[in-house]
């Protein structure tokens, strides 16, 4: 009895202040369904704000480094004859901002991206390990407020007339460190509240926060350029800090933290797989946090993590360089302004929203995560080729091809970072351990983030010689990403064929995707 009272006291101290106030005003406890809705909204806004601050750099790049760094080696050359006189009138050709307006400015911007994403990738491994051991609400709040502070500090370089490369490098590294706490935290929180059925579709829709953040970040940064590029960093920085404060006040990280038992809210007939918690708490022994090496050994983690390395290499190259590429490429014989290029680039993310939902729905329907992800990555190869060849023919062609490319590039990226991570974080080999999801998520997305750092860095160097070479690199990366899933795809197809041959499914039969991931 005393132990139970002590446990309730602990839960009360951990309950967010905003929820305590809400319950005090209503004079009744908050419902389980209300908490689920609150978790979805807050985690969606949280990671959307992370991506909004991350997208800012790509919008401001062409202001910091206004040189026309196109690389005139195209395939075929007669389709890409540049109007050099029109380039002289391009609104991006201003004085720029030292040190990025120097001859090696494009390479310096690539190094800034590498610094951010490199620290982000390294921090991700530690953040996931930490996330399974501390209050996720506090970890997420600190990450968001810290991200806002250092994002705004980068923009403050304009106000204080700072031209030191190492100042901007340091601000981006610190921002990357604080951002690394975001993804493992939000996936773990959502995993605590939602069930397994239709996970691909649900998380595909929820994962639209990535594209929504990219779109809103692009629009805000582009709109703020007329007031000075510093405001393109300051406004998203303030916004994420405010969302972080809201998270601190209202985010319930799990049902037990606020004293809600989901089983009390469900009839026996409703206790289906849909309402089964992702993280089943079976015993104290099984609630021990999973080690880093142990998480790597979970079947399926390594191939999906390596696949995500190349998927994010492609996706983040577009994230950081697409507005720059658009503003420095003649579309229908005309160059777009920095702000117009930023707005146009959001269509890539609109395609990403559709791709994430579509990939999740297809993977649920087929019960084959690897097959779905591989199909999208292989299909992205011709999409990338056609966008490079025909994207500059006209604005209409550019919009259509950009949308399709965004759908095929972001589809597997969204699927692996959400549904696949949740599947593997609750893998049968863990025997119900409830404290592996953040670690597994961090391993998969952390490995992917290394690719996200490599892609923009290589693009900074390669694009100064030829954008065609950049697209060749992206197509090769998509090919490797698909090939890395070959063994899992074959296993899924074989399991699916065997299940169809069987006269009647046995009670012990496993779904295809589960059987695939259970292979040693």
Automatic annotation (TrEMBL):
Compartments where found: Membrane
Database matches in Pfam families: MFS_1
GO BP terms: phosphate ion homeostasis
Membrane topology annotation: Multi-pass membrane protein
Source superkingdom: Eukaryota
Principal subcellular localization: membrane
PROSITE patterns: MFS
Gene Ontology cellular component annotations, sorted alphabetically: membrane
Family that this chain belongs to: Belongs to the major facilitator superfamily. Organophosphate:Pi antiporter (OPA) (TC 2.A.1.4) family.
Transmembrane regions listed in the UniProt entry: 30-50, 107-126, 138-160, 166-194, 206-225, 231-251, 301-321, 341-359, 371-390, 396-416, 437-462, 468-490
GO molecular function, a single term: transmembrane transporter activity
Residue ranges constituting the Major facilitator superfamily (MFS) profile domain according to the UniProt record: 41-494
Alphabetized UniProt keyword annotations: Membrane, Sugar transport, Transmembrane, Transmembrane helix, Transport
Designated name of the protein: Major facilitator superfamily (MFS) profile domain-containing protein
């Amino acid at each position: 009895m005393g132990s139970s009272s002590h446990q309730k006291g602990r839960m009360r101290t951990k309950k967010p202040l905003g929820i305590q106030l809400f319950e005090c005003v209503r004079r009744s406890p908050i419902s389980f369904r209300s908490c689920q809705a609150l978790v979805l909204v807050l985690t969606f806004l949280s990671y959307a704000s992370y991506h909004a601050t991350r997208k800012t750099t790509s919008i401001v790049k062409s202001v910091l480094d206004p040189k026309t760094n196109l690389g005139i080696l195209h395939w075929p050359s007669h389709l890409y004859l540049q109007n050099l006189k029109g380039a002289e009138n391009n609104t991006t050709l201003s004085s720029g901002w030292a040190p990025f307006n120097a001859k090696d400015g494009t390479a310096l911007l690539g190094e800034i991206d590498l610094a951010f994403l490199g620290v982000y990738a390294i921090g991700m491994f530690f953040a996931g390990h930490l996330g399974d051991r501390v209050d996720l609400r506090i970890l997420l709040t600190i990450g968001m407020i810290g991200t806002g502070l250092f994002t705004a500090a980068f923009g403050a370089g304009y106000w204080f007339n700072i031209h030191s490369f190492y100042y901007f490098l340091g601000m981006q590294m610190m921002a990357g460190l604080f951002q690394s706490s975001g993804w493992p935290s939000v996936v773990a929180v959502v995993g605590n509240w939602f069930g397994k059925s239709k996970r691909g579709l649900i998380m595909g829709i929820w994962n639209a926060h990535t594209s929504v953040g990219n779109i809103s970040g692009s629009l805000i940064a582009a709109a703020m350029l007329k007031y000075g590029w510093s405001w393109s960093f300051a406004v998203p920085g303030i916004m994420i800090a405010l969302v972080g404060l809201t998270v601190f006040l209202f985010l319930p990280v799990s049902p037990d933290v606020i004293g809600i038992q989901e089983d009390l809210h469900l009839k026996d007939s409703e206790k289906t797989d849909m309402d089964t918690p992702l993280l089943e708490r079976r015993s104290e022994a099984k609630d021990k946090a999973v080690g880093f090496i142990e998480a790597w050994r979970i079947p399926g983690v390594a191939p999906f993590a390596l696949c995500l390395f190349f998927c994010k290499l492609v996706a983040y190259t577009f994230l950081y360089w697409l507005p720059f590429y658009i503003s420095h490429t003649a579309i229908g014989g005309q160059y777009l302004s920095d702000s117009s290029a930023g707005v146009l680039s959001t269509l890539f993310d609109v395609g990403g929203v559709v791709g994430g939902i579509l990939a999740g729905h297809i993977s649920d329907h087929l019960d084959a995560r690897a097959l779905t992800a591989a199909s999208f990555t292989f299909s992205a190869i011709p999409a990338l080729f056609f966008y490079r060849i025909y994207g500059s023919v006209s604005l209409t062609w550019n919009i259509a091809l950009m949308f399709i490319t965004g759908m095929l590039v972001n589809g597997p990226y969204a699927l692996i970072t959400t549904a696949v991570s949740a599947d593997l974080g609750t893998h049968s080999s863990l025997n119900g351990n409830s404290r592996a999801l953040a670690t597994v998520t961090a391993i998969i997305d952390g490995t992917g983030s290394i690719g996200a750092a490599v892609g923009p860095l290589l693009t900074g160097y390669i694009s100064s010689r030829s954008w065609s070479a950049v697209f060749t690199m992206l197509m090769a990366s998509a090919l490797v990403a698909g090939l890395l899933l070959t063994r899992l795809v074959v296993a899924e197809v074989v399991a699916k064929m065997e299940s169809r041959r069987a006269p009647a499914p046995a009670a012990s039969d496993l779904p295809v995707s589960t059987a695939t991931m259970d292979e040693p």
